[in-house]
User: What shape does this take?
Amino acid sequence: MDWGAVLNNTLGWLISPTSIAYAIAAVGLAVHFGYGGLLNFGMAGFMALGAYGYAISILSFGLPWWVGIIVGMVAATIFALILGIPTLRLRGDYLAIVTIAAAEIVRLLFTTQVFDEFTNSADGLGGYHTGFREANPIPVGTYGFGPWQYNERDWWVRVFGILVLAVVVLAVFLLMRSPWGRVLKGIREDEDAVRALGKNVFAYKMQSLVIGGIFGALGGVVLALPSAVVPGVYVTTLTFFLWTILLLGGAATIFGPVVGAVMFWVLMAFLDNVVPQLAVDGILPFTSTQAAVVRYILVGVALLLIVVFRPQGIFGNKKELTFVK
Amino acid sequence: MKAARKASQRRSRLVVALFGAVLAMLAVSSTGIANADEVGTDEYDFVFSGNVKFNSEPLEDVLIKVSGNGYDAEVVTDAEGKWKIGVPEKAKYTVSIDESTLPKGVIVADEDANGSSKEAEFGLTGNKTVNFFLGVGVRNVTSFGDQLVERIVNGLNFGLMLALAAIGASLVFGTTGLSNFAHGELVTIGAVFAVVLGVFNHWPLLLAIPVAVLLAGAVGLGLDAALWRPLRKRGTGLTQLLIVSIGLSLALRYLIQFFIGGNTYQLPGSTDAKIKLFGSVSLSVVDMISMGVSIVVLLAVAWWLVNTRIGKATRAISDNPSLAAASGINVNGVVRIVWIVSSALAGLAGILWAFFIPGVKWDMGGGFLLLIFAAITLGGLGTAFGAAIGSLIVGLLVEVSTLWIPSDLKYLGALAVLIVVLLVRPQGLLGRKERIG
Assistant: This one.
């Protein structure tokens, strides 16, 4: 096996747009679950709204790219309000079931033939890059070293993604040390106690759902920046991967979701490079198509083990347990 | 205004009529597909197929073309008017019929077609039937009423198999508090066992299906012993358990793909001919047996819950676990039985669903899971009979709504109902208010 190539391919994922996009969405999920205790299983829907909001406003309405991003964020806000009003007063598992169903509704609406004019149904959207690429301040050329050599376009996507990630992380950091964040954490620990203090628990939860949802939409935008928007991406599996990432890093931490996302994708890339090769070399007793599936089985097992044995994640504090109830 | 409305009414009636015609063709075309003239069906997993007929007479040597996504293929229909074309991707393709190869005076008269071509896309499975309505004007118009009856019968069939899975999920929720996200995979596992025994090992179906259901029950027993019971002993919280079930669902789903790959498998008999019953309602023998089996099993489960000791204990635990334990009920023992029963029911639902779709695929349970959730929320979380009623409503809704909305949106109605129910009556139809807080 060519370990140099494996290392090269794997390390590229440290700053891949996918890792960054997942990190942004995972930070949003941390606002929902890690700090607010909200069981949101519809992050794929928020990301889809961000990505489609961005692409459709550029392609169908000719808006500038940055307006597209705002449209995506507004769409996520509206989605969060629609989800939150019926469910935030109910027990947590209702929110879980409703969000997963709502995300599926969003995906079906983007996939159906009915809105083909706007969404291009199952084929997805592409070719909305002009505006974003014109805003690129990096001069033409190839930059970087080792595994990280990209042209100006690829760097622009990564730099922009990292900027968004930085803003999002900073926002969460500031929010969570503010009085607002303390109330939110209080709601996670004991909703009734906070209610007894005269706080409007419903409003705080709703704000948390909206803010995390907007971060999810931004993650969707960054995921859409390099290539295309395809509805098949925004399935429940995407949401489950985000949960794995969040719990891997630590749900109630600032950098946990970011490190979790990078670790997740680097490990996935490593397995993707190594396992099929081992199968071809005859070291592992299965076919290479089977080998490509192995890493997904491991994701499921990993999620299961993390939740049981280290629910606070790698960086989490055992005292600040996120599984209270 | 009036004229326009009339025209649109006529149009919708025509669409319905065409839909009926296509269904009727489907019914006929499903006999002996193996004889179809095929291109690329061995190389590719995704297959378009169809049956070219005019006035119920099959047309031979008609040229059919498929193009799209950089792929082109053509095939000529065989003596029975059948054709099959394999395509490399699960995507949208344009299927067209060469009108010059049709007999004189016969043209494509299909409302959905654009000239002599049609856009076609795959649904849940890797098979898609594309039929063209040919004619010179005379059509067998199926009335709206007949359509409705047909959809209702289909919806009941679907609702009954959904009820099998939903009752199980609801019993698990009631006794352990777990919203089991891995229940969809239990549905898949049943169907996969049936394929492994009935197709790979050529067991007769009458033996393969009961054994598959038993094996599915054994999986439930195994999961309870290896995973859920130790976790209960540790005192793991409900939210944690919920996420554990998600991890389990991912692991099982891809484990299934690991073993059976990405192909869609057919159980023997799932493409049998349909028998005309009354009006436009036609069901295959398998459909009728499936409905019968569902009804018998559902009644048996209901009887078990109401009359037997363990059934009563199950309901007691659902009502109040601590009180039940304090009254001397062996909670762990009952929960183990509930896991076995619910997994076996899910497996049976999967097998019946495999005949209904038709087809068995590694990720078939994912979509089914959301419908199970919709059904048990509608009926009231944790109430077994509520889950059954919710399932029937969801099943009817999914099938009947296709009269008005495109079939690629048919699951949308069921999922939207979920949200509406929570707005209007969060405890569901049969649930009690104190559970939701």
In short: The longest helix of chain A spans residues 152-176. Strands of chain A lie at 142-145, 148-151. Chain A has one domain: 3-140+148-309.
